[in-house]
Amino acid sequence: MSVVHVAVGVIVDSAHNVLITRRAQSAHQGGLWEFPGGKVEAGESLLAALTRELQEELGIVIGRTSALLEIHHDYGDKQVLLDVHVVWDYSGEARSLENQPMAWVSPQALTQYAFPAANAGIVIALENYFPV
Predict the structure, then answer these.
(1) What is the mean pLDDT of residues 103-130?
(2) Is the pLDDT of residue 106 over 80?
(3) How far apart are CA 35 and CA 38, in angstroms?
(4) Contact yes or no for 119/97 (Cβ under 8 A)
(5) Beta 79-87 vs 65-74: how paired, if at all?
(6) Three-class secondary structure of residue 120 per DSSP
(7) How far apart are CA 29 and CA 63, in angstroms?
(8) Mean pLDDT computed over every residue of the chain
(9) Domains of the chain (ranges plus CATH)?
């Protein structure tokens, strides 16, 4: 089974809230909340994939980012490598271009949302990265 490499953006506003979106019901892990991003295509750099995915999904152009963590997870039917970066600044107004629900949430409130199992490490990292 091949590993799906995913570029994940933790988009942070000036109050350190993060943007989450809900996966389409028809998608793998459908109906759960996630941090925006998508597959890194063959021959594409991580930054290029993150830039492309956030432009396509949210209509934003990313500025400064920094690596947060990498997560390897096996769902049984799919293996993923989440390459997670904090997006500190961007241009444009984030909006749902794929008609998925979205919300700005404090890192401490993320535990109130249902995420795919692979995202659990991101939630914990953000709670520690942005303490109250």
Answers:
(1) 94
(2) yes
(3) 10
(4) no
(5) antiparallel
(6) helix
(7) 29
(8) 93
(9) 3-129 (3.90.79.10)
- Considering the entire predicted model, what is its pTM? 0.93
Q: Is the pLDDT of residue 132 over 70?
A: no
Is the pLDDT score of 105 beyond 90? yes
Q: E strands along 35-78, which residues?
A: 37-39, 61-62, 65-74
Name residue 71's beta-bridge partners. 82
In the block, tokens 């293996």 appear at 79
DSSP classification of residue 97: T
CA distance 1 to 22: 26
Place of tokens 């993320």: 110
Mean pLDDT of 88-117: 95
Considering the chain, what percentage of its residues have pLDDT values greater than 70?
98
Q: State both tokens at 95.
A: 């909006």
Tokens of 23: 């996966």
The pair of three-digit structure tokens given for residue 69, joined into one six-digit string: 């963590």
- What is the Cα–Cα distance from 71 to 28, expressed in whole angstroms? 17
| Confidence class for position 26, pLDDT limits 50, 70, 90 | confident
Amino acid at 46: L
